[in-house]
Structure formats: structure tokens, C-alpha cells
Write a structure and sequence with these properties.
heterodimer; A: 202 residues; mainly alpha; 11 helices; 54% helix; B: 72 residues; elongated
């Protein structure tokens, strides 16, 4: 997609440059139509496709962990211990590894990706202009809906007696999936240096 | 100089320069794999392109039409 988009942008630049050098092209009706395409339609298309490209790129795991403060969270995906929920999901492809962060942290609503992008921009502001929080926290906490998006309705989840007995409190988010004693080990970045690390292909 | 005395050519030049700059910024943002690339795209590239489009559309409404213009 990058190649197509760059080609479209270059084509637009060439057309726009023609109007920069010779604005008299628009004296004829064909020139006016071409000007409308080059100075209005194509740039709008470039913005729309660029936005789509950036939104899709920000779903990638490697994009999330390209931020310095996220490096430790990226490393935590490789911890060789099944108790670590993100690592277990990532290593066993329970979420697509290329979009692992996005799969568990996005808000699965119509404007979810857009809201995530805005939250990302706010974090960039904190990183470069203000002071980033330490430790990093999720505003409003991690919601069960993000787990239940995949697990709800799955046989192993539904038939688990512990889950079945508290299903209402889980679906209503009254009790977190990450509650102590349940699935409480997620991104343990403070102890990451002591953890055994899984190396893919070994 | 009043706004409606500016010629079509000047509007086109201003519009073209803004759009070309915005598109160049967009190319850089596409090829730069960094969290700031989106900020560059959204807060500089898209704004420059959008401004260029607005200047072009404004030219259709406000630009002074030369007497020797294409009138039939």
C-alpha cells in the first residue's frame, strides 16, 4: 500500500507543479477540470489514504514498541512463563502477533481505533512536552470487555466452573479478569530482568 | 490590496506551494517509522494540504477575473 500511496502523492505533486509553473493552463475548460482534480480531489484522496495508512500502521506491535517507554512492555511478550497473560497470548498466537498490543488494548467500538489514536497522541505529548507517568497506567483500567471480546462464548471459558460462577460480575466489569488470584500477571516490567526469555525458533 | 483583487494566478501559486509542501511532508511521514510520524502527518502535512485546498477553493469564489478571461 505504501508504494501505491507514494505513487499517488508523486503524481499529485507533478500535476500541482504544472499549475505552479503555468497557472494559465486553467484558461480552458479542460484545464479548470484538471485544476479541480489536482488541487482539490487528489490532495483530499492523499490525506484520506495517508490517514488510513497511519491508522493501520499504528496497529502493529513493532510500532507500539518503537516508543522508548514501551520497550519493556514489548520485551514482556517474550517472557517464558505461561502465567504471564500477554506473553502466553503472544507466543501461542492467541492474538495475531503482528497486532498483539492492538488486539488486547483497543476499544472494540466503531470509533475505537480513532480514540486509541487520540490517546496515543496524548501519550506522545506527555513523552516529549510534559512528564510521562511512571508506571504507565491505562486510563479507567483494563476493561474485561477486551478479554471477553474473544473469550465470551468460547467453550473452554464458558465451561470453566470458576468463570461460570462469576459470569455476571465479569460481563458487567464489576470484577476484573486481572483480579489478584486470577489472571493477575500482565506485563510485569519491574521484574523483567529476572525472567527467563523465550527466543522464537529455539 | 483587497482580497477580491488578487488574481487567479497568485491564488494558484499559493495553493500549489502549500499542497506540494504538505505532500512532501506526507511522504516523509510515510517513510519514517516512528511514533512522531503520525504527528508530523496530521499536524503539519494534512494542515498544509488542507490549507492549499482552501486557498484553491477560495480562488474560485474571490479571485479577480481578468478581462481577457475565458468568457463566452
Amino acid at each position: 500500500m505504501t508504494g501505491i500511496l507514494v505513487a499517488l502523492i508523486v503524481l499529485t505533486i507533478v500535476l500541482v507543479a504544472a499549475f505552479l509553473v503555468r497557472p494559465t493552463i486553467t484558461a480552458r475548460i479542460e484545464g479548470k477540470i484538471l485544476a479541480f482534480a489536482a488541487l482539490c480531489v487528489l490532495p483530499a484522496l492523499c490525506i484520506a489514504m495517508g490517514m488510513s495508512f497511519h491508522m493501520q500502521r499504528s496497529e502493529q506491535t513493532k510500532f507500539c514498541i518503537s516508543c522508548h517507554s514501551m520497550e519493556a512492555y514489548g520485551k514482556s511478550l517474550y517472557i517464558d512463563d505461561a502465567k504471564h497473560i500477554p506473553a502466553q497470548h503472544f507466543q501461542n498466537h492467541r492474538v495475531p502477533p503482528d497486532t498483539a498490543c492492538y488486539s488486547c488494548h483497543t476499544d472494540y467500538t466503531i470509533f475505537g481505533p480513532f480514540k486509541d489514536k487520540l490517546a496515543g497522541v496524548k501519550r506522545i505529548y506527555l513523552q516529549y512536552v510534559s512528564t510521562p507517568p511512571n508506571p504507565i497506567t491505562i486510563p479507567g483500567g483494563f476493561k474485561n470487555a477486551q478479554c471477553l471480546h474473544c473469550h465470551l462464548g468460547a467453550r473452554a471459558f464458558q465451561e470453566n466452573p470458576v468463570h461460570a460462577s462469576i459470569m455476571d460480575t465479569l460481563t458487567s466489569n464489576q470484577m476484573s479478569c486481572l483480579t489478584s488470584g486470577c489472571h493477575d500477571t500482565a506485563h510485569d516490567v519491574t521484574n523483567i530482568s529476572h525472567e527467563k526469555v523465550w527466543k522464537p525458533g529455539t | 490590496m483587497k482580497f477580491n483583487q488578487i488574481g487567479m494566478g497568485q491564488f494558484f501559486r499559493a495553493s500549489s506551494v502549500l499542497i506540494i509542501l504538505g505532500l512532501l511532508v506526507e511522504i516523509v511521514s510515510l517513510l519514517w517509522f516512528h511514533p512522531l510520524s503520525f504527528v508530523l502527518f496530521a499536524f503539519l502535512g494534512a494542515i498544509l494540504i488542507g490549507l492549499g485546498m482552501v486557498v484553491y477553493l477560495a480562488s474560485l469564489v474571490f479571485a479577480a477575473i481578468p478581462i481577457s478571461g475565458n468568457r463566452e
